[in-house]
# Entry
Amino acid sequence: MAVKKPVTKKAPAKKPAVKTGAARQIKSLEKKIGKVPKFFRELTTKEPEMFSLVMRFEEHIWDDGKISKKTKKLIAIAIAAALRDQHAVRAQLAGAKNLGITKGEVEEALRVTFLLSGMPAYVYGKAQLDEVMK
# Structure
């Protein structure tokens, strides 16, 4: 009579922390906007399909079209300042530096924010600008 070997279950293979293509996309995104939030970085393994869709959407939005990337970035800075979102303002300012946007251009965009969103939004954006773009 043959002796049966005990059945052992293999542990499921762990997913890599970030797939190679996703790692490149994250690095590219960081060059554009600054630090990528942790939750978004985690999408690369927890929800790779969602990560892929968001990245495609992000590329579609930021590609030059009827208006340039620089103009879109100035709009994003103004919106982030109006919302008084410190992370977003700093991230957008970091991306602005990478696009060659000057401090003067950002100040002008913030003046429009002042007109439409009030003094607190302008002051908030200006404080972040002075810190990030010294």
The radius of gyration is 22 Å. Residues 103 and 133 are 7 Å apart (CA to CA). DSSP finds seven helices and no strands in the chain.
